């Protein structure tokens, strides 16, 4: 099935929108509590449960428009469903919060496995979008492997030692922004390894 192209703004809204909607819902519900079937749930847990269908709806729309869903999006959706379910079942916010640690940890571990095999899984995923020599991909993979590990540890420290309010803000804005800036700086520093498709290979 051929991948369709859509407006990049629409794509970004569909990919990032659910997290921002979760943030807004959390702000509206954080001071409230809700009782279902004799069990009282915090506003955070209710917001986390509302986030699940919003995320799935966003992915369904993205699939309908592009006929493609990234592996990372699928993994994130599975973890959101599993840990969102555990959060509701045990009425414990920590399950949903540790989801972020697992996502970043799995990414770091996956890149590390590739590095041990002398491969860059990043090159396999992003090679067509960003032509670069193998040495550059290996360097970028090593740095991102460490970066994801740092974010995983940071998430653990934040949710275990700080307030839910602060965790939600960092999860929504700080962690993605830190990852974006880190990735941009790495790509900028690896420009000498980039391949210009316009130039003939030597």
SSE ordering: HEEHHHHHH
What best-fitting shape do the alpha-carbon axes yield? Answer: globular
Beta-strand residue percentage: under 5%
Radius of gyration: 19 Å
The tally of domains stands at 2
Give the strand order of the largest sheet, numbering strands 1, 2, ... along the chain: 1-2
Distance between the termini: 35 Å
- Count the DSSP helices: 7
**Average pLDDT metric:** 90
Question: Strand tally, please?
Answer: 2
Low-confidence stretches: none
Helical amount: over 70%
Sheet with the most strands, sense and barrel status: 2 strands, antiparallel
Subcellular location: Cell inner membrane
GO cellular component, one term: plasma membrane
Function: Plays a role in cell envelope biogenesis, maintenance of cell envelope integrity and membrane homeostasis.
Family: Belongs to the YciB family.
Task: Give a description of the structure.
By secondary structure, the chain is mainly alpha-helical. It folds into two domains: 1-88, no CATH class; 93-194. Helix content is 74%, strand content 4%. It has helices at 8-29, 43-66, 71-90, 94-116, 121-126, 134-161, 164-189; strands spanning 33-36, 39-42. Strands 1-2 form a two-stranded antiparallel sheet. Strand 1 and strand 2 (39-42) form a beta hairpin. The chain is globular, with a radius of gyration of 19 Å. Plays a role in cell envelope biogenesis, maintenance of cell envelope integrity and membrane homeostasis. Belongs to the YciB family. It comes from Neotabrizicola shimadae. The chain crosses the membrane at residues 12-29, 41-65, 72-90, 102-122, 143-161, 173-195.
